[in-house]
Design a protein that fits this description.
10 helices, about 300 residues, alpha/beta, about 15% strand, Rossmann fold, 2 domains, elongated, 4-stranded parallel sheet, about 40% helix
């Protein structure tokens, strides 16, 4: 056998082996996810996962998702497999996905384990910082074979995030109470991505020392913390009526200075590129709070 012919066969073997090699990506729990080829039928078990998949250029590979997956508009047309906290396992299996995207802190993880036991490949997502979102986009691009679009989206996200960080570095701290619900009274803890957004804007989460993602607190604890600004989210873009419940607590600095703000939860509480829209609004609100300090 001539050397050239042998060399050609060797190269062909190497290339075919590389082409057939498994696609390996680590999820946010450190678990290795292996696929024989980029996923073609994906089910997402959280609204943010569906939105990020579209942002990563792989929306056309999404075959099912959960309730409240409403962005972009194309996500509304997809089959539902229950809610993120209660998954319809049969509905997931019926869609024959080659990849399922789960949410560690939002999904019922024993149910997710059952999906694995049924032979499905599951990637678990848990972005806890703003920077994590860019990485999520890149990994979804790898899993779906849309690296070019995903990497471009990740680069754009990082550039915009860095500009926001640069614009708010060194500003005086603003003590913030971020309220995500009225009854029970709930806020965000240390590892929640909203706490990272508050830090980005030069704020300090008054309950940032708490470990739970969404801890329940008392009115008395809020009064003792005496935040300079209170930011609330409700059920949409409208200002939640219960934000004004704080008006009766006139000793609160936030009430005295009129620093009661609200943000649409869709742009602040989802781990997607749109969180930058929410962060920009949050930063602007903290600037208003700074401007209202006594001269």
């Amino acid at each position: 056998m001539k050397f050239g012919h042998f060399f050609g066969l060797t190269v062909a073997f190497v290339l075919s082996t590389a082409a057939s090699a498994d696609l390996v990506v680590k999820d946010d729990t450190g678990q290795e996810i292996r696929l024989k080829a980029p996923a073609q039928r994906i089910v997402t078990l959280a609204p943010h996962a569906a939105e990020n998949l579209f942002a990563a250029g792989a929306g056309d590979k999404l075959v099912g998702t959960v309730d409240y997956s409403d962005y972009p508009p194309a996500a509304k047309k997809l089959p539902r497999v229950g809610g993120y906290s209660l998954i319809d396992l049969e509905a997931v299996v019926a869609l024959k996905p080659d990849l399922v995207l789960a949410w560690q802190s939002g999904n019922n993880m024993p149910q997710v384990d059952k999906l694995r036991a049924l032979g499905l490949t599951v990637y678990v997502s848990q972005p806890n910082t703003m920077d994590d979102i860019a990485g999520q986009l890149e990994k979804m691009g790898q899993l779906a074979g849309t690296e070019a679009a995903a990497n471009a989206a990740a680069t754009s996200f990082r550039q915009r995030l860095e500009a926001l960080r640069k614009n708010n570095t060194g500003k005086p701290k603003v003590r913030v109470f971020y309220q995500i619900w009225k009854s029970p009274l709930m806020t965000v803890g240390a590892s929640q991505i909203i706490s990272d957004a508050i830090r980005l804007c030069g704020g300090e989460n008054v309950f940032g020392h708490l470990k739970p993602m969404a801890p329940t607190v008392s009115v008395e604890a809020v009064l003792d913390a005496n935040p300079e600004a209170i930011i609330a989210t409700g059920m949409g873009d409208a200002r939640p009526e219960w934000l004004h419940d704080w008006d009766r607590w006139t000793r609160l600095t936030a009430v005295q200075r009129g620093n009661l703000f609200h943000i649409n939860p869709d742009i602040m509480q989802r781990h997607t590129p749109r969180i930058l829209d929410g962060a920009e609004q949050l930063c602007a609100q903290l600037d208003i709070a700074r401007s209202r300090r006594p001269k």
